[in-house]
């Protein structure tokens, strides 16, 4: 147990010493960090490829080359975007044509169904198209009034089951 306390006190002392050092030298540390970031940024500007660059050049040819590569890259990106937009437009046109064809087919199908006007085409009629003479029973005579209908559970026609109350038995000694 004493060893754990010694380790904890050592950690506390080292943390206190570190905080005291940071309080005393905070301004100097911040200045060094800012100087490091400035030097690193200027190095990246001067040598964009890192240490493998050809070397330092006093002329502005590297700046001109950089602007040329940037303009070339922008032109390539513009061409790629233009091509992507053309592909998207072509796909949108093809989708519109397919949608119009589907709508026309659906309209034609509905028109043909309306022209036929068979009595069996209606839902719940109970007769099939052309079979009205063979099927003599109508849909209303097929259903009985006391049949169970799950959509109307209150009208079952029979008495419902009611469980007994679950109360503890009364009584005592």
Secondary-structure content class:
mainly alpha
Strand content: under 5%
Helix content: 55-70%
Q: Could you tell me the mean pLDDT?
A: 78
Order of helices and strands: HHH
Strand tally is 0
Put simply, the count of helices is 3
Low-confidence parts: 132-137
Distance between the termini: 62 Å
Major beta-sheet overview: none
Could you walk me through the main structural features you see in this protein, from its secondary elements to its overall organization?
This protein is mainly α. Among the domains are: 1-50; 62-115. Helix content is 61%, strand content 0%. It contains three helices and no strands.
Short description:
This protein is mainly alpha-helical and 173 residues long. It has three helices and no strands.
């Amino acid at each position: 147990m004493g060893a754990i306390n010694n380790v904890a006190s050592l950690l506390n002392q080292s943390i206190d010493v570190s905080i005291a050092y940071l309080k005393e030298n905070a301004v100097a540390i911040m200045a060094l960090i800012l100087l490091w970031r400035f030097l690193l940024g200027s190095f990246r500007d001067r040598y964009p490829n890192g240490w493998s660059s050809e070397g330092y050049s006093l002329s502005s040819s590297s700046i001109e080359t950089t602007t040329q590569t940037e303009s070339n890259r922008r032109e390539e990106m513009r061409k790629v975007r233009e091509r992507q937009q053309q592909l998207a437009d072509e796909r949108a046109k093809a989708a519109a044509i397919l949608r119009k064809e589907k709508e026309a087919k659906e309209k034609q199908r509905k028109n043909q169904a309306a022209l036929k006007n068979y009595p069996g085409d209606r839902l719940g009629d109970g007769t099939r198209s052309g079979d009205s003479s063979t099927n003599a029973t109508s849909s209303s005579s097929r259903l009985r009034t006391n049949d169970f209908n799950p959509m109307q559970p209150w009208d079952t026609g029979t008495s419902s089951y009611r469980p007994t109350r679950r109360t503890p038995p009364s009584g005592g000694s």
